[in-house]
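Our collaborator T.R. sent over the components below with a one-line note: 'Predict the complex.' Nothing else. No constraints on interfaces, no templates requested, no preferences about which chain binds where. So this is a plain run: every listed entity goes in together, and whatever single assembly comes back becomes the starting point for the next discussion.
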Amino acid sequence: MSELKVTPMRPRTQTEGASAGAGVAEERDGQGRGEQARDERDRIDPAGLREEHERRQQEQQKHIEGVDRETLLRMLYQMVLIRRFEEKAAEAYTLGKIGGFCHLYIGQEAVAVGALSALRPDDYVLTSYRDHGHALALGMSADEVMAELFGRAGGCSAGKGGSMHLFDTDKHFLGGHGIVGGQIPLATGVAFATKYKGTDQATLCFFGEAAVNQGAFHESLNMAQLWKLPCVYICENNQYGMGTSLKRAMSISDVSQKAVGYGMESEFVDGMDVLAVRAATARAVERARKDSLPSLIEIRTYRFMGHSMSDPGHYRTRAEIEQYQERDPIKVFGDNLREKGVLDDEGLKAVEARVREEVERSVKFADASPEPAPEELFTDIYASPIKPGR
Amino acid sequence: MAVITMREALNQAMREEMRRDEGVFLMGEEVAAYQGAYKVSKGLLEEFGDRRVVDSPITELGFAGLGVGAAMAGLRPIIEFMTFNFSILATDQIVNHAAKMRYMSGGQFKVPIVFRGPNGSAFQVSSQHSQALESWYAHFPGLKVVMPSTPADAKGLLKSAIRDDDPVIFLEQERMYGLKGEVPDGEDFLVPLGQADVKREGKDCTVVARSMTVPLALKAAEELEKQGVSVEVIDPRTIRPLDIETIVNSVKKTNRLVVAEESHAFCGVAAEISAQVMEHAFDYLDAPVKRLSGADAPMPYAKNLERLALPDVERIVKAVREVAYLE
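Returned assembly:
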């Protein structure tokens, strides 16, 4: 704890100690290069958190005034839905109802909900394997998402994709992708297609900060700026690529700065503030629609759970997690809505009750949904059926 | 019927399909202003403009993935690799994304895209520029793999590939771009994917060849005819889906099979054809299937070694004589 207070830049990791590299020590002492440029980031790290909390509450309250009540309540509902859905998914995973990998979105709800609230229904969305939150925030039903996690025929991908591969043509949700950074060129291509067709649709591409080290990210940003493609690249910086902290994996760990090398507009946003995320995304979407220009938004967030359900989480401390939980995005937003009189305690309870009902129903739906028929093994491979092995 | 080169046939196919469908566009390195590294896209920029004929940076993973995304959003991209050796940088987008999108979305998204360019050896360009990759791509359900051996097939197959709703790997051969042949007139000329073609009928031995080994097999068949051996030459044209029926029916008639290919033998297409022929026509075989593949070595630079690494007419003749127990 005390160590975190004097070293706000650096989340504590398992390898911390005498063996820490020189570059890391330099940064801990606050002498690292580019330190000033990262002031904004420092402010939302654990140490300055309590003082900062009040300032940000005030900022968010200002934002609230610009958003209609219905939208605010829908956003809160979606954030609570994601939280409870994921808690239920974790429970179902431990019961063996969900297999494989299951990457939960708990802690990051403000990112998907805030960003997607700035879109039109005909805009496009792609994301990584941590995709449950985006699917729900896009308005896909909890039933079809839970059924997909259960591997059932009633799932949104007919039980063939699973947790990492949620899709919905009607919502313009183009997945759910399992290879780190793989969706970034795809999104660039979707933006290419909308520009080719002459529409003013925007494409939102979500990815984690670890994907920024992939060539796919850099190749895509170069093409997007070169050809002025209307794509908004959203880095959900939850600060860990599986068990490796950002600082151990990126030479310049200020993600928003990566845009500079491509001449692209970029922004840094507090991912615990759903309305700040919404406002920044709206600015980037406007740029895409009006000027057909791409943007990079780094949204600093934190996942309260492990990388996946099989992650024991030895690489970060309980204290670190708890400090971020003090700025739980749902609590922050809920408190502000109450203070602004948008919602009272009764209203909050009603949201929880409606969410609980929807999540319970999704489990019942998924349980009742049949397994895919055996012949489904060989469907959806080609446009017209081809005998297997040919 | 006009006599044109393979290069012109491919160019015509793209030109006609781009005229026919506004959603078809061509992207790749040097395809526009430079007119194509091998001039396959000559004149397309002039006719269609830089919106539809797009010079890409050297960024294979990036523009392959861009193509997949554009296909998911309703376009029909033709992505040219300057050679398929460079597609290796893009395999994540081809194999992990293009091939699996329809399946893992439960049939919601299709990926109508063609990845095309020269595959296999060229003229003394050494190890990194001389690889035949059809067995890689044919390995994965979700991809179709096409390899034409004549200008007519090249045109008809490429037009079908562009109209197809699945991702198609379209493998050309640099050595064959100047090859001339008759091509049927008319914009409606199509060759369906998944149908083999009997390039020459015969009764004593079947030779299955593809791409650059087809003209070699036909020459070998002429030579063998003089020696009193009648050879049937089959070009599957599409590696996946594979028209195994045509091959099996031929083997049931000739009772002997040689597969000639430019690629390495190990885990290759000839190995697959051999296994399937054994499964479907074991009792008809009078001799073990013979594979004549590229040497099990990286491609050397030296002209004499390069020649040794590839199948030629002489070796096809010898292989047929061996399965016919003439040597």
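Summary for T.R.: The first strand of chain A starts at residue 124 and ends at 127.
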